[in-house]
Amino acid sequence: MFFRKRTNHNRELFKLIVLVVTFLIGLLLIFNQQIQDVFISSTSYYETQKLGKSTSHVSPSFKFTNVKKISPSTLGIGLLKERTNVVGVISIPKIKLKLPIYEGLNNTNLLSGAGTMRPKQKMGKGNYALAGHHMTNPHILFSPLQNIKVGNTIYLISKSKKVYSYRVTQKKIISKYQINYIKNVSKKRIITLITCASGKPEESRRIMVRGILNQGKGR
């Protein structure tokens, strides 16, 4: 009799555990996107405050193929991995974009900011090319670039707090294979911003935004 009661109790306990686990999985699926967006937003803000203070020893990578779309698994890995140094901040007030700039492209960097696309880039010189993720949430990372307009101002802030101002001169949709846009252009001091044309996982098109340095210098 005791054994039967014990067995029934175990069955009820097992059913309860299954019910709770199923409920938690359901909640996770429902709120997964919201959790992801909150994590990205808060990390972007925190990393922006580290300008001039970060002392990372991670070597930068510039291999585009190593960058994966953001998912729960890449977010989890991002929590554990160290980022490269914050080398600046990009701010575009008209579209409410403000993000840390990291040296190089890797999954961890792009979870919270923009990454330089070529080695040894310098603000205010040559073609300062940056890449960032386009998310389904239109307000985080490089998603707001879909709303940028010719004539808007892009600000870059260096580690020494020097500000470089660029005026947007071009915005167009390009193929992901058109990497010529990130190369230096003879005698021009410009900025190029690249992101996916949408937040769809298999998006092959890119938004390309280009601006020219105002007055030929930072301030």
TrEMBL record:
The keyword Hydrolase applies. Signal peptide: none annotated. It comes from the Bacteria. The keyword tRNA processing does not apply. Keywords: Hydrolase, Membrane, Protease, Thiol protease, Transmembrane, Transmembrane helix. One of its GO terms (molecular function) is cysteine-type peptidase activity. The active site is at 133 (proton donor/acceptor), 196 (acyl-thioester intermediate). One of its GO terms (biological process) is proteolysis. The chain crosses the membrane at residues 12-31. NCBIfam families: sortase_fam (TIGR01076). This is Sortase.
